[in-house]
Write a structure and sequence with these properties.
By secondary structure, this protein is an alpha+beta fold. It has 8 helices and 6 strands. The strands form 2 sheets. It has a 4-stranded antiparallel β-sheet, with no helix packed on it. It has a two-stranded parallel sheet with strand order 1-4. A hairpin with a 6-residue loop joins β2 and β3. α1 crosses α3, α3 packs antiparallel against α4 and α5 runs antiparallel to α7. The protein is elongated. The protein starts with 21 loop residues before the first strand and ends in a 10-residue tail after the last helix. The N terminus is likely disordered.
């Protein structure tokens, strides 16, 4: 895990621990990366691809073969059979392809590109899991804040109902005011019950993303810090160098190019070298003795040139060329898509920051308005409807701030994924 994953400094703010059971986003991501089977599968695939990128797997190393045999034979044409014998032998053979049109070189380069492709795909999988966990974490944090907002709403409505009841007892309030306060209290109690349900469901969903018991209790940190201040031009340059999806598309094009070059080498001659050294002995009847063997040593070279094989070489070369053209177009498409996605994400991030700032200012106004309305309501100078409107405006403003700050943070993390900043990735 440490080989593939390391959170960058400044990526996830390590929030202050609120209690021993508080789970911050950094800890949640670490748990998911450790437990998620999709990441382990991606890492195993990357390890397999790296394992295959060996010169021996491309045919660049000689082959050694040790063989031994014992053959019994007899002349069955006579009755009874005569001239039975046993031939025993052992031999060490060495074979090496000295030249095959550089096809083995291109195959090795193709394997090397496949190794890097496996790493890029593993990085892409890790980044996807990080964003899923972040989204689940902030959904849980939003559910927690909505629950707190609903609790505050019920508290205010309960105070209003109690005040209306007390005033009614002294003849200073109408029965209609009491009934109106009661209706609003019941409605707010329903809202709280729904918020409690959403909070519990979000906890189970987050635990599922972490691949642990869904009933594990969680306390989340609701603080958010935005620390992305890079310009779009710098982000674009970084994305073109480090984006895992674009890197994978480029590596697939590179693989296709090596495959095409390897297909072209089939028209070139091939030169193979071989050597062998062994012992053999012929014994009468069934006899496996090896006491007086005959030594044999051979050195040879074979030259071959493919004149015609039913157009198989031509077909492979044509298909390889078309595959290269396809991969080149896909790489270009990935480049354009990345530019579009990053531009859209950056604009969305800037908009979310603006919305968050507006929401905070709206909350300040709504809070002042509610406090003033509460004072006047206690003095009997505003109606129940006006007080209720001020109360709902305050709750709405708090909810908007909560939504805006989490949207801004998720937009920031989306940009960091596009620029390859979610995972510290060392290219080799």
């Amino acid at each position: 895990m440490n080989k593939y994953v390391a959170l960058l400094a400044g990526l996830i703010t390590v929030f202050p621990v609120l209690s021993q059971t508080t789970l911050n986003l950094s800890e949640a991501i670490c748990i998911a990366l450790e437990n998620n089977p999709n990441i382990q599968i991606a890492q195993n695939n990357a390890a397999n691809a790296k394992n295959e990128a060996q010169i021996g797997n491309a045919g660049l190393l000689p082959q050694f073969t040790l063989s031994a045999s014992a053959v019994y034979s007899e002349d069955a044409g006579q009755l009874p059979p005569r001239d039975a014998s046993t031939t025993t032998s052992t031999q060490l053979q060495i074979g090496y392809t000295l030249f095959d049109g550089f096809g083995n070189i291109y195959r090795f380069k193709q394997l090397q590109a496949g190794s890097k492709l496996g790493q890029a795909e593993a990085q892409n999988q890790i980044e996807s899991i990080i964003l899923q966990v972040a989204d689940g974490y902030y959904r849980t944090a939003a559910a927690y804040e909505n629950r707190q907002i609903a609790q505050e709403l019920v508290r205010l409505s309960q105070e209003r109902f109690n005040r209306a009841q007390n005033r009614a007892e002294y003849g200073r309030a109408r029965t209609l005011d009491v009934l109106s306060a009661r209706v609003d209290l019941n409605a707010d109690s329903v809202t709280l019950a729904q918020a409690d349900l959403q909070w519990e469901q979000s906890i189970r969903s987050l635990n599922l993303l972490l691949f642990r018991d869904i009933n594990t209790s969680i306390s989340v940190d609701t603080s958010v810090i935005i620390n992305l201040q890079t310009s779009l031009i710098d982000l674009m340059n970084q994305a073109l160098d480090n984006n895992a999806g674009l890197e994978a598309a480029r590596l697939q094009e590179q693989q296709a190019r090596y495959q095409f070059q390897a297909a072209q080498t089939a028209h070139l001659p091939r030169l193979d070298l071989s050597a062998s050294y062994g012992y053999s002995q012929l014994n009468p009847d069934i006899d496996l003795d090896f006491n007086n063997p005959v030594k044999t040593a051979r050195i040879g070279a074979s030259f071959s040139f493919n004149l015609f094989n039913g157009f198989q070489t031509q077909i492979k070369r044509q298909n390889a060329r078309r595959n290269l053209e396809n991969q080149a177009m896909l790489a270009e498409q990935a480049d354009l898509s990345l530019r579009r996605d990053l531009t859209n994400a950056y604009q969305g991030f800037q908009t979310s920051l603006h919305v968050w700032a507006l929401a905070r200012r709206s909350l300040e106004v709504a809070l002042l308005n509610f406090r003033r309305a509460e004072e006047l309501y206690q003095l009997g100078q505003v109606t129940t409807t006006q007080f209720r409107e001020a109360q709902l405006n305050l709750i709405k403003a708090r909810s908007q701030v909560s939504t805006a700050k989490y949207d801004a943070k998720l937009n920031e993390m989306g940009i960091r994924r596009l620029v390859g900043d979610l995972v510290a990735w060392k290219k080799k």
